[in-house]
Amino acid sequence: MVNDTDILFEYLKNLMYNPKEAHLDLAELGEDFQHLGQGLLYFGECINEQRDFANALAKGNLSLEPPSRENELAAPLKALQASLRHITWQSQQVAKGDYGQKINFMGEFAEAFNTMIQQLDHRQKELVAKIEESQRKTAALEQNNKLLEAMGAGLPDWIIVVNNKTKEYMHYNQSALLAMDSDKIVELEVEKLILDYLAQENPNYHNKQLSIVNSRTGKRYLEINTYNIQWDEEKATTFVFSDVSKELAEKEQLENYAYFDELTRLDNRHRGMMIYQQWLAERREFCLCFIDLDNLKYINDTFGHNEGDYYIITAAKLLSGLASKYSEVLVCRLGGDEFMLLIDEKDPTLIETQLINLRKKLGSKTRNKSSKYPFSLSFGIVKIKKNEKRDASELLRLADERMYLYKRANKNMK
Questions:
Q1: pLDDT digit string (tens) for 266-317?
Q2: For the GGDEF domain, which residue ranges apply (predicted)?
């Protein structure tokens, strides 16, 4: 015969290990155990409420209504939910450019988060300073040079004065003379530009840019300022040529820093997320893929970062090869061992086949054949429809979850 303590013990056991089977009928208990049974039922309700709340947090659902105040068991989880909500808000502020956010709790995570924000703030300030410096240089080049300064001895600018009527050169400075004599291609290009300009019925005196292909030094960029003047009582035009090749190269380099990953030369996270948002706004139908390189930390720690960089670069080249198979592909490195693909493809199974084949190719690329951890990758694919209802963050999270499911299912064993 089953006694009261057996009934209560069975209920507690099921409550802990098999909650769906946990059931307690107070009518089966004797009078002395009725009050205890009622208490255990309330305890069970608290346990189940806490379990449901914990499962929701584990899945990233921070909007679930927390348990009531009476459920003291859930108090730590409610505090955790509040902390995660605050961190989420802070991360959103950082994404908007507010680098003043700091976390003063959660130990090592807070230290890592605050260090990341400081680095982002420092890098942004460096980039802004470089861009502002480049803009100042460009603005200086755009200002009309005063004629007296332009004709000063030793200036690097080329100064050429041309008679509007006869098209004869009335004056040119030493820099222009040396440039014309040292490169006939430059001389011919400059002459053609001057004649085309003066052939206009009412030429506009403004800045314009000319690119000249030089057989000796490659492509050069010249900025031209024109001035309508009187020279020896004749109407003339002064052409001031400034070589801005260096400035444009610096500007291009800054743009590379802003949009491209230095190691792989792929688009970086900023560029990738910008294109991702653009495709969503355009209601495109495409596939979003998250890629993660397996065991990169182990390879870095065991074989060195040179081998790890080779791993990353090799994977980047293989991923870039997908561009030839589809009408439009964006491959970007999110950072570390993570990549993101945006592919103009409606059938995710085709992409899955391509990535599985790519994974096999990557496995054969390791330079250390004795390694127990060959190069490999894990991926998660999400198909995005034209009438997609899920928001950008939810789609990214889903791709990330699928990637980690794939990683766990195909994890290399030591």
A1: 999 999 999 999 999 999 999 999 999 998 998 899 888 998 999 999 999 9
A2: 284-414
Question: What would the pLDDT profile of 53-67 be if each residue is shown by its tens digit?
Answer: 888 878 888 787 888
Q: At the topology level of CATH, where does 260-409 sit?
A: Alpha-Beta Plaits (3.30.70)
Coil, helix or strand for 323? Answer: helix
Task: Report the CATH fold assignment for 147-248.
Answer: Beta-Lactamase (3.30.450)
What is the 3-class SS of 269-311, one letter each residue? HHHHHHHHHHHHHCCCCEEEEEEEECCHHHHHHHHCHHHHHHH
Cα–Cα distance measured from residue 307 to residue 304, given in angstroms and rounded to the nearest whole number: 6
DSSP state of 103: -
> Comparing C-alpha atoms, which of 366, 364, 398 is closest to residue 383?
398
> Within 10 A of 233 (CB to CB), how many other CB atoms are there?
6
Residue 271, both tokens: 């560029």
Category of 324 on φ-ψ map: left (φ > 0), alpha (ψ -120 to 50) or beta: alpha
pTM, entire model: 0.43
